């Protein structure tokens, strides 16, 4: 897997950097470096509440990652002391994660990235990695990843426990349940089968319907 953590204070990616750091998309196909502006890969709220201007958006996937409700949220879907749960990614061999990619306009790219850094400040860092489109092409892009090293990370727990936390948490951006259900619906629209999100949604709906 060719994923590189990015220091946010650094200047934007240049074509020569990307080509050096990521190598080919497949052994015989060079990774295309976008000249039109950085691509951002969204796999959580960035799919259904994009909230920033972009020049182009396409369904996309990344390889070797699984989506999990393992990141605590104290600034969007929970509060300090009562965190909600939002998604991050864990490295998983032979698994692909489907989401949506957005190409930024170069002239406002730095502003948009600064906005996103602020929005994702609860534990996420930028990672540079290849994004794959449905037509078989690939580009260099960025995604926001929360690792176990961040203070809000919660990690794994029994499904019912995660479901209970999602059902009861609430933060400045709204109910945690909204985050899960909107993500679930957005993934359906993208034709993405995500067993973790589906099992969690089923568990939450089951709990909700219990007397
Ligand atoms: C993302 O959507 O790509 C990052 C996680 C989130 O903000 O939900």
UniProtKB/TrEMBL annotation:
A Pfam cross-reference name: ChaC
Transmembrane stretches, start-end: none
A Gene Ontology biological process term: glutathione catabolic process
Statement: the UniProt record of this protein carries the keyword Lyase: yes
EC identifiers of the protein: 4.3.2.7
MF terms in GO: glutathione specific gamma-glutamylcyclotransferase activity
Biased composition (Polar residues): 13-24
Record's keyword annotation contains Transport: no
Signal sequence segment: none
UniProt xrefs under SUPFAM superfamilies: Gamma-glutamyl cyclotransferase-like (SSF110857)
Skewed-composition ranges (Basic and acidic residues): 1-10
Annotated keywords: Lyase
GO (cellular component) term, any one: cytoplasm
Annotated stretches, region: Disordered: 1-31
Record-linked PANTHER family: CATION TRANSPORT PROTEIN CHAC-RELATED, GLUTATHIONE-SPECIFIC GAMMA-GLUTAMYLCYCLOTRANSFERASE 2
Protein name from the UniProt record: glutathione-specific gamma-glutamylcyclotransferase
Native source organism of the sequence: Elongatibacter sediminis
Organism taxonomic ancestry: Bacteria, Pseudomonadati, Pseudomonadota, Gammaproteobacteria, Chromatiales
């Amino acid at each position: 897997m060719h994923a590189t953590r990015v220091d946010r204070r650094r200047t934007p990616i240049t074509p020569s950097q990307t080509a050096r750091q990521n190598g080919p998309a497949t052994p015989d196909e060079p990774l295309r470096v976008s000249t039109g502006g950085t691509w951002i890969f969204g796999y959580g709220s960035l799919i259904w509440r994009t909230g920033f201007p972009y020049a182009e958006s396409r369904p996309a996937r990344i390889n070797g990652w699984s989506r999990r409700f393992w990141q605590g949220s104290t600034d969007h879907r929970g509060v300090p002391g009562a965190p909600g749960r939002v998604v991050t990614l864990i490295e998983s061999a032979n698994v692909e994660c489907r989401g949506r990619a957005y190409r930024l306009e170069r002239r406002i790219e730095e502003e948009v990235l600064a906005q996103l850094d602020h929005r994702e400040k609860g534990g996420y860092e930028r990672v540079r990695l290849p994004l794959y489109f449905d037509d078989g092409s690939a580009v260099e892009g960025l995604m926001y990843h929360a690792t176990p090293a961040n203070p809000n990370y919660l990690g794994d727990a029994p499904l019912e426990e995660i479901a209970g936390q999602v059902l009861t948490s609430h933060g400045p951006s709204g109910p945690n349940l909204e985050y899960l259900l909107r993500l679930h619906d957005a993934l359906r629209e993208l034709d993405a089968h995500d067993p973790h999100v589906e099992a969690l949604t089923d568990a939450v709906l089951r709990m909700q319907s219990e007397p």
